[in-house]
Sequence to fold (1000 residues):
Amino acid sequence: MTLNEAREKLMALQVKLAAYNHALGILYYDGATTAPKGTAANRAQTMGVLSEEVYTLTTGDETVALLEFLDAHRDALDEKERRQVELLLKDIRRMQKIPMEEYVAFQRLTTESYDVWHTAKETSDFALMEPYYEKIFAMNRKFAQYCAPEKDPYDYWLNEFEEGLDRARCDAFFDTLRAHIVPLLRAVQQKPQLSDEILHGSFPAAAQAELARRVMSVMRLDPAHVGLGETEHPFTTSLGSHLDERITTRYVAEDFSSSLFSVIHEGGHALYDTGSDDALAYTALDGGVSMGIHESQSRFYENLLGRSRAFCEYLFPVLREVFPEQLAGRTAEEFYRAVNRAQPSLIRTEADELTYCLHVLIRYELEKRIMAGELAVHDLPREWNRLYKEYLGVDVPDDRRGVLQDSHWAGGSVGYFPSYALGSAYGAQFLRRMRESVDVDGCLRRGDFAPINAWNREHIWQYGCLYRPGELFRRAVGEEFDPTVFTSYLEEKYSALYGL
Amino acid sequence: MTLNEAREKLMALQVKLAAYNHALGILYYDGATTAPKGTAANRAQTMGVLSEEVYTLTTGDETVALLEFLDAHRDALDEKERRQVELLLKDIRRMQKIPMEEYVAFQRLTTESYDVWHTAKETSDFALMEPYYEKIFAMNRKFAQYCAPEKDPYDYWLNEFEEGLDRARCDAFFDTLRAHIVPLLRAVQQKPQLSDEILHGSFPAAAQAELARRVMSVMRLDPAHVGLGETEHPFTTSLGSHLDERITTRYVAEDFSSSLFSVIHEGGHALYDTGSDDALAYTALDGGVSMGIHESQSRFYENLLGRSRAFCEYLFPVLREVFPEQLAGRTAEEFYRAVNRAQPSLIRTEADELTYCLHVLIRYELEKRIMAGELAVHDLPREWNRLYKEYLGVDVPDDRRGVLQDSHWAGGSVGYFPSYALGSAYGAQFLRRMRESVDVDGCLRRGDFAPINAWNREHIWQYGCLYRPGELFRRAVGEEFDPTVFTSYLEEKYSALYGL
Fold:
């Protein structure tokens, strides 16, 4: 095999993997959006077969020989090829360590489990999910031990979602957040509360969908490549390449801000993915590099931009056009204060910017304890409810609004949650740096996202997975990660809002 | 390899093929329903890769050896296994004769072409489609020559869609139809015309969707396994097995009968597919056996049942509930006469039962001549328009309502159209036989499809592809195919309607 032949084979391999990921992605998307209710087993069967094909392709002798050959000649490769080989080899080394039957069984399990979760949540029936969670946590532990027997299993998964992360760093990070957010929240709660009355009323789904389309357009999401669907739990997915992206939302009839901010959040994910350099399409470098960086973008658009005074001033006249009767006599300032009301609550995805990280912290603590064998799945609801009372002071009335609210565990992901809080903190540092060259507030006030998107594209999006998250971060902001930039931002914003 | 090992491998092979078909099917469905406009190239790339995988799997040495081994031991197999081996070997023999690059290129071509067709139809731009049609007809000719060099290429494709069919039989069949339908239509046209005014007005899509759901429920389509989507051109597709079926429709705001009858038509296809014995799932025998039998079911529900006086009497009160203002003061008899008005028109899918087969005849003649090299693709619009004038007496105002109206050629299918007319004729014979044991009109008047569906399931659906179409037909009706049963049915129905 000559080096050039190997290079061509590397590209062909990646194109094939992209096709399988496209197929698996669209099957998942179909299941979450339009598939008839009784078709999950059929879909799980197909996804199982395709996962098996991916497994065989990835761990096959030919693939391994190709990548080892390329790795041995890494000095002759360009930067992109080197990183492609590195990422693919990392996947292979992991897959080689997981027996195929277990790998495929896990795909089937999570497809089925995700489906059952819909019913369990609807009926607030934790017992229905318990056996699935049992198996999913057990298999996550097992896979971690296969792949990195020297590591703590939860450390393994934290590092999978965010290269470089482990419990020690995560503990330190959350300690910083807690040390600043808990007293800030306490101070806020001693002040007269902001009203969010303006957000409540009756908002027909069709009008909310129209608002979603307008917001996506303001964010400069390309409608030729980014679709919008409806699901119980909003998400974003790339299909085959960054050229086909789907985001979803959920329309809550009595509160338009739920869908509005979920669209901005998922729209941030979609901007990041679709912002990959076109030359990365169908390669292992296409799309976002880590969950932390991904959430830094989604929460950047949702909160740092979306809940800013400048953007609220721009958006309010649009809202008045879409909901003329519901918002008659209201002001932009009322809207700004409503979407920034700090209010300990039950649902993470609808939490305000200040209390949000406490929701994440609870999930982090629970995951960590289950993975360490210190907490049984059976006791999850009790512990969930206890921590919500302790950190947020709220009583959880049922599991639907408690431990069953998120789809992550049902979908097989353990170790994902910390990314949300990390991403929030990354974003504050990105914003501080961006402000040095972009008049962010001016742009937001005009609804002109072009200069903001251009900065993100130049410093983050275009690279896809070329750099590791830590390196990408340092290149973009020119300094180390410092969560106090985020907590200072919160302190400043909420002090002004609440007159502390 | 022992026989039992081979049997297990046969099942595993079929399960794998079903999974790929599921993936290809959902990619197609996504493209036709919800995918953003600019994603076709991305999807074509993925479908190309997956088609290549199917090709490699199907024609690989291991598969060929397995099937030849089983074929050599066919006497030891049960009836189902024998037919599975026969069908799979037939596919392999065909694929082995088509070079892989050309097979994959054809998949890519038709994915792209189907996408371009949407734009071409919208803008009535035949020139846009011309190069695609050129290539598609050329590749159909070429593939036929690869597969059956001794056969006329169009005969090859007719037989692919309906085993046993060729131009000679098709000519004879259409001659019979023409000999009865043309004079009948002439006689009808000399009488005062029926009014279809009742069908026209303003019918919101949401209400039409509600009607679609109610009609699907009356037909006893299982909502847990049959979904409804919206597309430019209605279609039905099975995903992975008969346990996940999707039908689509199109809502025309000014005429509710368009969507109503397309739903009943596609619902007939879906009943047939989902009626396969569950033991056939994931095998080569799952779902309908041929396009002719498939259309016999869709057109059976659409016309023989759907446009019968008995069903119209049942349906009218439902229509009144869904469209109370639009249908105020109307009667079931008016509705019955409106949906049976014989009126030469432009659009096949919206044609009445009497003129419908003339639309099919035109397509048959055009395909036959193009495949024989007697007609150039470039001249298709001119010839289309000339034949519409000759057979139906209508002037085609633009290609959107002319040669660009159907998606079949754009999707790569040549030789499909005759199935529609064949199916109509098969259905009339099924109905005559069914009436011997089922009080069809009584059932329809009560909206009780259970006994009708039970007859179809017993005699047709349950078998999937176990019997060849001709054998299935003879087993069900106990006699040979006779198109005059259909023409007599038309003569009787239209004589009564028009007082001939």
Notes: Chain B has a mean pLDDT of 96. The interface with chain A takes residues 15-16, 18-19, 22-23, 26-27, 29-30, 33-39, 41-43, 45-46, 48-50, 53, 222-227, 229, 239-241, 243-245, 281-282 of chain B (CB under 8 Å).
